[in-house]
Amino acid sequence: MPALCRDCCRPFKSGDDCPRCGSARVIAHPELFDLTIAHMDCDAFYASVEKRDNPALADRPLIVGHAGGRGVVTTACYIARKYGPRSAMPMYKALELCPDAVVVPPDMTKYKAVSQAIRALLVQATPLVEPLSLDEAYLDLSPEHRLSDRPAAVLLARLARAIERQVGITISVGLSYNKFLAKMASDRNKPRGFSVIGRAEAVGQLAGLPVAAIWGVGAATAARMEAAGITTISQLQKMAEADLVARFGKFGRHLFLMARGEDNRPIIPDRPAKSVSNETTFRHDMHRPADLLAALLPLAEKVAARLGKAGLAGHTVVLKMKASDFRVLTRNHRLSEPTRRADIIMRTAQSLLEREADGRAFRLIGVGVADLCSGDNADPPDLFGP
Ligand code: TTP
Ligand code: MG
């Protein structure tokens, strides 16, 4: 079975311990390398940040919130949660349940900075990052969007590892084929979790859940559905779409699709255009380096023109190619200075291309510029140039 080591982040076959590093932190799933929609959520976010900054708290039950009469818990660390404290609980009650807890007031400025540091890592994997709050985001890691041709699962394991090492807190991730199921998966084995919901198992797993597990079904809607005798997703799975629409209007169609694990909401990044790119599909597959290079030139010029028009420049040049077997490959290079110049984009793409044009046939080629910024500081004059 396809498997992945969550410590050394290498893929391998079968689900035992990692053959390379011996780690037992292995995720194995038949669809592991076919799924591309992910959701990440930080573990006990505020508390994890406070523990990172004060190692003396590491093994203590920690509650973040304002102490005193009317304070509430924003979050409790996983040690404190064993005794019952939860987000939104009145502080006095949380401290009744866990009298040994250390209480720290929230520091939003710090959490925002941590959130940005995490985001900076996420966008190295894909420009399609949709944040939901400070501590969670969806990622579209499909081949046409991700900035590396490694499988989504590998990128996700690397991100979790990078966030632990560079930011100093743990996250849990979910990998599936749509937003609804990716989010459901990320919540499954917190903290430091990695779980997968594949196409083959989704409908069966959903069947066992209450309707409230469906995205968009809050307490009020669940109560309304219960009044109509519908409590489980398996009941919804047996109902005809027309019946659900008759009972719940447009929302009925949503219920019909979600119950079957179908959710086609796109992942929408909160920041506009993270990259500017252009690509072309050949009429006949091409394999000669010279032909591939010739196809790149007008694309690089178009990208530069679009950057110029928008007053933008980019730090990273991305080369994308689709092989004749439809496998998509992307290569990128981060420049020392952002650029908006066609010749620099072209030269960089060319050196990326030279490593790939080894006689294989390609059906598509594209070039883009990512890590966009204002064009004002792009392409500083070369002191030693002509
Ligand atoms: P969550 O992701 O819901 O919770 P969490 O990260 O603390 O714990 P986990 O995901 O491991 O279950 O929320 C993220 C942060 O948002 C949380 O650390 C504190 C804040 N928050 C509140 O201030 N009030 C709340 O009621 C909730 C739920 C969260
Ligand atoms: Mg969280």
Description:
The structure is a single chain. The protein has 13 helices and 15 strands. By secondary structure, the chain is of the alpha+beta class. It folds into three domains: 31-197, 2-Layer Sandwich (Alpha-Beta Plaits), CATH 3.30.70.270; 202-259, Orthogonal Bundle (DNA polymerase, domain 1); 275-377, DNA polymerase, Y-family, little finger domain (Dna Ligase, domain 1, 2-Layer Sandwich), CATH 3.30.1490. A hairpin with a 5-residue loop joins strand 1 and strand 2 (11-13). GO terms for molecular function: damaged DNA binding; DNA-directed DNA polymerase activity; magnesium ion binding. Belongs to the DNA polymerase type-Y family. The record marks 46 as: Substrate discrimination. It catalyses: DNA(n) + a 2'-deoxyribonucleoside 5'-triphosphate = DNA(n+1) + diphosphate.
Structure keywords:
DNA polymerase, domain 1; 386 residues; Alpha-Beta Plaits; 4-stranded antiparallel beta sheet; Dna Ligase, domain 1; 3 domains; 13 helices; 5-stranded mixed beta sheet; 15 strands; 36% helix; alpha+beta; globular; binds magnesium ion; binds thymidine-5'-triphosphate
Strand residue percentage: 15-25%
**SSE order:** EEEEHEEHHEHEEHEHEHHHHHEHEEHE
Assigned CATH class of the largest domain: Alpha Beta
Number of domains: 3
Strand order of the largest sheet: 8-9-4-10-11
Counting DSSP E segments of at least 2 residues, the number of strands comes to 15
Instruction: Classify the fold: give the CATH topology of the largest domain.
Output: Alpha-Beta Plaits
CATH superfamily of the largest domain: Reverse transcriptase/Diguanylate cyclase domain
Bound molecule types: thymidine-5'-triphosphate, magnesium ion
* Gross geometry: globular
Content-based structural category = alpha+beta
Stretches with pLDDT under 50, minimum 5 residues? none
Number of helices: 13
Overall pLDDT confidence? 94
Q: Helix coverage percent of residues?
A: 25-40%
Major pleated sheet = 5 strands, mixed
Measured between the Cα atoms of the first and last residue, the distance is 58 Å
For the record, the CATH architecture of the largest domain stands as 2-Layer Sandwich
Cα radius of gyration in angstroms: 24 Å
